[in-house]
Specification:
Elements (H helix, E strand, L loop, with lengths): L1 H7 L10 H26 L6 H11 L34 H7 L7 H24 L5 H15 L3 H9 L3 H18 L4 H13 L7 H6 L3 H40 L18 E2 L2 E2 L13 H8 L7 H27 L5 H16 L14 H13 L4 H15 L7 H17 L13
Antiparallel strand pairs: 1-2
């Protein structure tokens, strides 16, 4: 079994003996144990964050604006979200393109969808692991990445939280993994890679920021394929909901930005007395009360009380200005680096890290999104191996690992994680890149 898994990951089993093979086997057993716990969670809890996606997808196909819809007693409980508070904006905070993705099984009973989407989340994680590992050339690098995934991501509370809530970030991870895989196989410009980058942006809009660095560094086919596919996916939503749904999505995101800054804001993960707690036979009072944090600079402001509550809107504005300034700096740096000539590995790393670092300036970004960090880790490990004497890269790698591992710190952990991750990303962008880099098979 271990040998078959190693071959699937693109690793020659004969290169792993003794301790290495035992480490992989131990990781597989740990992953199986985590999958068993996750299955128990899925069968005993409601999947509260999956519900607004399903209800939003059903509204989309029913000709109803998912972002302004409010359930009434005369409506079917197929459109009921028990966690939706009447005093707050819609919990459907996902773009119409993401709702189009979740409409695949929207008309199945919710309990069946709950099991189906949880299974697909685990499958997406495994496939992402496989495709990312196949982009790493050296056996030791593959072993390091495999160990990190099997021991620190798969059995983590963050991944358990992701599946228990029914989140979608792992599907973004899969599209990014496929994009990097096909780009590495083409050893340069790839239309297929651009298509998968577009799917990631359609699910998670900030990842559209991957496109400008790709264009600046000369991957024109990839960036044009990404832009064309993204526009096509947006156009696919227009016959269902028109431009009003996109306006509603923008308004809802803005409204949540203001609501979450109020001192009276309450965790929405509970039912409201005026709304039935049971929908389609599922009791939405059953969920795991995880201690999660908002991993953004705005979240750090709130956690450390750096601003008074009446001044937090100003803090949000500051974050937006900083995000714009950071993007301007990264694009200027890309223009400068283009003249030197850099490797494909560095180009992909630069594009991914630009999007990831900018997300730290968003109004909200919770712990379950941490699974996305598998992508920069898979890109950085080979960069460190190619430049073992680069103190910047080694420090960057250490900062990212420390940022991901500091989630156990209860109060100031969110601020420390944001600083560590952002610092690691900055060092990655501004190390001296090598012009030559070897991908598997090239």
């Amino acid at each position: 079994m271990v040998g078959y898994l190693l071959q699937l990951l693109g690793i020659e089993p004969s290169t792993y003996q003794g301790v290495a093979k035992a480490a992989v086997l131990g990781g597989i057993l740990l992953a199986c144990f985590a999958a068993g716990i996750s299955l128990k969670d899925v069968t005993q809890t409601c999947g509260g964050d999956l519900r607004p996606k399903i209800v939003g997808a059903r509204c989309l196909w029913s000709g109803v604006n998912p972002y302004t819809f409010r359930w009434k007693k005369e409506k079917s409980d197929w459109f009921l979200d028990p966690w939706q508070r009447t005093s707050e904006p819609s919990r459907c905070t996902y773009p119409p393109t993401a709702l189009l993705f979740y409409s695949t099984f929207a008309w199945l009973p919710y309990l069946a969808q709950r099991l189906l989407w949880a299974t697909l989340e685990w499958l997406a994680l495994f496939l992402s692991f496989v495709f990312l590992n196949r982009t790493i050339a050296l056996s030791f690098d593959k072993l390091l990445f495999t160990t990190l995934v099997l021991y620190f991501f798969v059995p983590s509370e963050l991944w358990r939280f992701h599946v228990e809530r029914g989140q979608f970030y792992v599907f973004v991870l899969l599209t990014l993994s496929l994009a990097i895989f096909f780009s590495s196989r083409a050893n340069g410009d790839s239309l297929v890679a651009g298509v998968f980058f577009a799917f990631s942006a359609a699910l998670r809009l900030p990842f559209i920021l991957i496109m400008p660095p790709l264009w600046i560094f000369g991957l024109k086919r990839t960036s044009l394929a990404m832009l064309g596919t993204f526009v096509f996916l947006v156009c696919c939503t227009l016959p269902l909901c028109g431009i009003d749904a996109w306006k509603g999505f923008t308004a809802t995101a803005s409204s949540w930005d203001h609501v979450a800054l109020k001192p009276s804001y309450i965790d929405p993960h509970r039912t409201e007395p005026s709304v039935p707690p049971i929908a389609e036979g599922v009791d939405f009072r059953h969920y795991i009360d995880f201690d999660y944090t908002d991993l953004t600079f705005n979240g750090a402001y709130r956690r450390l009380h750096l601003f008074r509550f009446d001044a937090l809107p100003a803090a949000s504005t500051i974050s937006k200005v900083l995000a714009g300034s950071w993007l301007l700096i990264t694009m200027t740096s890309a223009l400068s680096l283009r003249r030197r000539g850099v490797s494909l590995q560095y180009i992909l790393t630069f594009a991914i890290v630009t999007a990831f670092s900018t997300e730290l300036f968003l109004p909200h970004r919770y712990d379950y999104a941490e699974i996305l960090h598998l992508v920069p880790l898979a890109l950085v490990i080979p960069l460190v191996a190619a430049a073992p004497n680069s103190s910047r890269l080694i420090t960057a790698f250490a900062l990212i690992l420390a940022g991901l591992g500091s989630c156990f710190l209860p109060s100031y952990g969110v601020a420390l994680r944001a600083v560590l991750l952002f610092g690691g990303y900055v060092l990655i962008l501004y190390h001296q890149p090598k012009a030559n880099f070897r991908y598997p098979g090239h």
